[in-house]
Design brief:
By secondary structure, this protein is an alpha/beta fold. The chain contains 14 helices and ten strands. It has a domain of 87 residues: Thiolase/Chalcone synthase (Peroxisomal Thiolase, Chain A, domain 1), CATH 3.40.47.10.
Length: 377
């Protein structure tokens, strides 16, 4: 993953599925379900099944709720298995947006593109410069700052801690340490976001295999058991009284996931939070109940997310420093930590791991609680 050129998203996806199936100690002919989450580069869809030689599948679909899709795919696979509709489902995300000699920002569109697509009142935001993820998330972050006093030093605390975790991830694109001063000196992207507040853009693919707990116990790897799950798609109306920027779908999806797992935030050992921007980590931790609403900034600045903190978070370097594979970034690291296979970044206590996914501009959210042991053990 990373700046890997000359391959299509479909090729990355096919390789990821093959590797994941082999990692589980299975063969492709034992897979009877395939769920595909395509990125933005195109060329990846249900045709992947034929490319892998998977035929007569009872479950095959494209799932897309942007960064919350990984969680959604796992949940759909789980439901299908529980209903007896499938037994072994591969879930995959892949993208190949980066191109040689092109700016990474070009991979995700431009303000000019937004102007061409939007007309009438819907075009006013684009005309004012509001186009693309950095500027829209910056607007959300600025609202949070205005209401709760969240500041630049707190954003920096997230970036610095995440980079420290990335140092021990051999797959991470950025592994050199950074300081708060480095963060403050990095160039502006869309105020209040600097370069080090923003996630990477990566080419590559990640796949996971979902099967029953009973079957997984006899396979090659330690299982990551699904204790809890939830989704929420807020549907913000963007009018007065709307909570956009102050609250996210993590509130409901987290509450549902904790209730199904029979636990609360205090029981979580490790958190893998979708970190397209440093701000997203702060607001998500608040909404999951790890701290009070509005206290996310001081919470992350306290050192709680680091190696010696009470809630090790984004232990592989996240999307800010490791790689940007939409919701597969937190999910893949969540599985690694649950298995106890994180090497130098492995957290000692990893019985329960929270995995979050966030899509659109805080418009979609998915949550999983993974356990190193069967539920209730």
């Amino acid at each position: 993953m990373g700046k890997v050129y000359g391959r299509t998203a479909a090729e990355f996806a096919a390789d990821a599925v093959r590797l994941a199936v082999d990692d589980a100690g299975l063969t492709l002919d034992q897979v009877d379900g395939l769920l595909v989450n395509p990125g933005l580069s195109g060329g990846l869809g249900i045709g992947l099944a034929a490319a892998l030689g998977l035929y007569d599948l009872p479950l095959l679909s494209v799932v897309n709720a942007y960064g919350s899709s990984a969680s959604a795919m796992v949940q759909i696979a789980m439901f299908a298995i529980a209903a007896g509709h499938a037994s072994t489902v591969a879930c995959v995300f892949a993208d190949a947006t980066l191109q040689p000699k092109s700016r990474t920002g070009a991979a995700y569109g431009s303000i000019g593109g937004a102007r061409r697509r939007l007309t009438g009142i819907r075009g006013l935001g684009a005309a004012a410069g509001l186009g693309g993820a950095p500027s829209t998330y910056a607007l959300a972050a600025r609202r949070h700052m205005a209401k709760y006093g969240t500041d630049d030093d707190q954003f920096a605390a997230v970036a610095v801690t995440t980079r420290d975790w990335a140092a021990d991830n051999p797959f991470a694109q950025l592994r050199d340490p950074i300081t708060v001063d480095d963060h403050h000196k990095s160039r502006w992207i869309a105020e209040p976001f600097r370069l080090l507040d923003c996630c990477l853009v990566s080419n590559g693919g990640v796949a996971v295999v979902v099967t029953s707990g009973e079957r997984a116990r006899d396979l090659r790897q330690p299982p990551a058991y699904i204790w809890g799950w939830g989704q929420c798609h807020p549907g913000y109306v963007m009018e007065r009284g709307c909570e956009w920027g102050l609250s996210t779908g993590a509130v409901k999806s987290g509450r549902d996931a904790f209730a199904r797992a029979g636990i609360g935030p205090a029981d979580i050992d490790v958190a893998e939070i979708y970190d397209c921007f440093t701000f997203t980590v702060i607001v998500s931790l608040e909404d999951y109940g790890f701290c009070e609403k509005g206290e996310g900034g001081p919470y992350v600045a306290s050192g709680v997310l680091g190696r010696d903190g009470a809630l090790p978070t984004n232990t592989g370097g996240g999307e800010l420093s490791a790689y940007y594979m939409w919701g597969m970034t937190p999910l893949s690291e969540g599985v690694i930590q649950t298995r106890g296979q994180g090497g130098g970044r492995q957290v000692d206590r990893h019985d329960l791991v929270l995995v979050s996914g966030n899509g659109g501009t805080l418009e979609h959210h998915g949550t999983l609680v993974l356990g190193a042991h069967p539920k209730g053990a």
